[in-house]
Every structure is written in structure tokens, then in C-alpha cells.
């Protein structure tokens, strides 16, 4: 089944324009969500807003949006005022500069979209994708959509152009605020840690090896409920004694991994 476009845009850099389709890169329905029900009768509950001062339910047409600029003090905006503040959607991805892809830290990543050529944009699309791939650079620019202006990065991926929506600098919390402690890294422990990494190292990223086991359990339990079965808790497994000594933990991990590797080889032979 072909991918379904969620919108169109035009990549603009210099005097070159590339019309593109925008596609979601992931399924938004993958998460399992539950509804709130009345335990007594099983009816789905409705959400209501209640004014704590007047102790009454407030209808939607009686609501207003306000910004708290000080404790319990608000400035109120009308719907028209908020509409006027929204960024006008131009459907243009305005490229400001081309930066080395390796210099953009992954902490800025917020969302990812696939881009595909729109009608008449095939050659320009392929040209941009090839140029980005050959230079090792990514296109950095801004894109207005749904009333907001987003910082975006266009990067090549197997002949395709991927648009990454990035966080702005002021949206990120300073990493320096995280306390790191003052623990000493001992040379022998570092050597063992590197050996542990080498034991489990892979030359390529294979995401297909991993599955969301929790989601699978939830869906299985839901089907059991639908079929009228009772859900019983699985017995918890003992995680074993906690190893306090870091050196002993590293040695134990190396021994366990080596034993698992030997077992796997015997099964394969």
C-alpha cells in the first residue's frame, strides 16, 4: 500500500524550488490508550471544566484563554487575537544554510517526516538528495505549519530526503544543570567496560530485532478480556543479588556474556 501524503510543501534554496509531499515517518496509533469509565455502570465519562470559585461547570462558549504572567494573574486573549499571532502557513521550507550533518546533536531532534517529490519536482528532488549525500551536509531552515514556525533539518537517506523537526535552542534544558557527581574512573574498570562493549558490539543498526513487548502484552490482555477471560498477574522473577562492587559487576557481566555466546554456538553446531 503506497504511503499517504499528509501535506505538501516547497523546498526553497537560492533560486531553486522543489515541490514535495510530506509523509509521516511513524504510526501515530501505535500506543494503546484507555478510556475513563464509570466503574458502577461502565459508561464512558465526559470531561468537564469546573470553576473552583463558582463551583459550576463551565460551557465551552464561556471559556477564554489566559497566560499566567504572575501568581494567579492572567492576561486574557480572544480567539481573534490568538489567530492574529499565528504564523501564516506558506508551505515553504526556507533553507537558510547547509551545515555538516555530523555537527547537529541528536538532542535537538523532535519529529521526523519523509519528503517525496511532488508533480514536476522529480529531477530537482533527486539532485538535492544527491548533493546533500555527496557533501555530507544537511539543509537547515524554517517551515511554517499549523500556526507555528518550526526549525527543520533536511538530510539525505538512501536517495530520499528526510525532514527532521528540531527543537529551538531555548527549548532545551541546559545539560550543565544535571549533577554528574565526582566518581573516579579507574583504568582497570574502564578496560573491562570496553571489553563488555566489544562483546555486544554490532557494526550495523538493526531495529527490526526489537519489539515493544509491553504493548504486545497489553494487546494480548485486551483480547483476553474481550473473550471473557480473567487476567492473572505473572509471577515476578527474582533479579538476583545486587552486586555493589563495580569491578565484580563488570567481571560477572563478561563471564555471563561469554557463557551465553558459547551456548549459542553449541546450539548452532
Poorly predicted runs: none
Secondary-structure-based class equals alpha+beta
Q: What's the CATH architecture of one domain?
A: Beta Barrel
Helix content percent band: 25-40%
Molecular structure report:
By secondary structure, the chain is α+β, with helices and mostly antiparallel strands. Among the domains are: 7-26 and 86-171, Ku70, Chain: A, Domain 2 (Beta Barrel); 184-202 and 242-269, no CATH class. It is 26% helix and 28% strand. The strands form three sheets. Strands 1-2-8-11-10-9-7 form a seven-stranded mixed beta barrel.
Descriptors for this entry?
two-stranded antiparallel sheet; Ku70, Chain: A, Domain 2; 11 strands; 269 residues; alpha+beta; 26% helix; 7-stranded mixed beta barrel
Structure at a glance:
The protein is an alpha+beta fold and 269 residues long. The protein contains 5 helices and 11 strands.
Helices and strands in order, then pairings?
Blueprint: E1 7-13, E2 16-24, E3 50-51, E4 56-57, E5 65-70, E6 73-77, H1 79-85, E7 92-100, E8 109-117, H2 122-135, E9 137-145, E10 148-157, E11 160-166, H3 187-199, H4 213-226, H5 246-268
Parallel strand pairs: 1-7
Antiparallel strand pairs: 1-2, 2-8, 3-4, 5-6, 7-9, 8-11, 9-10, 10-11
Helix pairs in contact: 3-5
